[in-house]
Amino acid sequence: MYIIDNVAYAGEPPAMINVKSVNALADYELLVTFTNGERRRFDFKPLLDLPVFKPLKDENLFKSVYIDYGTAVWGNDIDIAPETLLEYGFPV
Q: CATH: 3.30.2020.10, 3.40.50.10490, 3.90.1170.30, 3.40.50.1820. Which one for 17-91?
């Protein structure tokens, strides 16, 4: 049994899925490989007008993506959750 947000669940907790590798592609897309072996192509264009992601319109900054503690990040200020990349990415 395990508890999340004061709700008890039977069995073992699901394994956390992290980003294993990330590559910036053309046209503001990311190719992401996860620790569970899945690969996804994530289109970042719809997010570029959100205030937190606006700096990524600079292609050089966008291409500087790297992994920090299993998360895709850009510098110290911008990151995106592995769960978002997995859920909204397209299987490769």
A: 3.30.2020.10
